[in-house]
Amino acid sequence: MDRTTMEGDAQTVSLIDEEGRSLLCYVEQTIRAKGKEYVLLLPVDTPIEIFAWAEDDESDDELLMDIDEGELEEVFSTARAVLAEQDLMLHHTALTLTASGDLPEINEDDIISLDIEEGDDEPMNMEQFQQLASFFHEEQEYVVCTPLDPLLFFAQMTPSGQPELLSPEDFQVLMALDEFQEVRAQLEQQAELMDDELE
């Protein structure tokens, strides 16, 4: 089944995960290489992350920790309720949670910076999030955020017109090809512009 549609003048496709959940995305760019069609995708709705506060035993500082799928199921209804107070509707979509509605303006006090470990041999990567809300569930405090950098997915289009998400390894291989150098430069430029705006 062809899941490609048009929203306004923008082409959209739906990424589907193993649970059958979908994520509607804009097609930001289409690239053809080695006889295949690849697309760079941006979610239509706002990506959402939920973190839990935890104490660092070594420094006594508080850290934001990822939560697993089971914990997410427990707190999802509460997170949806606190976002609804800001006229945002939380959705359990594929690959990432999303929220529809207009985000509040970014306030410097609401920006959270996290150091993300990419891997054993990779340097720490700082990501910044806008805090949208916080809430407690069974005495545990949680924070609802949206990443400030665009959340982009890279997929290969199948013969049936369905986008198939690429693995990080396949993505790195493609980024080294000549056909993708322009895309890589655009992504790096977007990241630099976002950093400049936040300084």
Structure, explained:
With 199 residues, this protein is of the alpha+beta class. The chain is built from three helices and 13 strands. The strands form two sheets. Strands 5, 6, 7, 8, 9, 10 and 11 form a seven-stranded antiparallel sheet that branches. Strands 1-2-3-4-12-13 form a six-stranded antiparallel sheet, with no helix packed on it.
Layout of secondary structure:
Elements: E1 5-7, E2 10-16, E3 22-33, E4 36-43, E5 46-55, E6 62-66, H1 69-84, E7 89-91, E8 97-100, E9 111-117, E10 124-137, E11 140-147, E12 153-157, E13 163-165, H2 168-175, H3 181-198
Antiparallel strand pairs: 1-2, 2-3, 3-4, 4-12, 5-6, 5-8, 5-11, 7-8, 9-10, 10-11, 12-13
For the sheet with most strands, the description reads: 7 strands, antiparallel
* Pattern of helices and strands: EEEEEEHEEEEEEEHH
Overall geometry comes to globular
Mean pLDDT reading:
84
Helix content: 10-25%
Distance between the termini: 45 Å
Unreliable spans are: none
Percentage of residues in strands: 35-45%
Number of domains: 2
Per DSSP, the total helix count is: 3
Report Rg: 18 Å
In total, the number of strands is: 13
Structural class by helix and strand composition: alpha+beta
List keywords for this structure.
single chain; 199 residues; alpha+beta; 6-stranded antiparallel beta sheet; globular
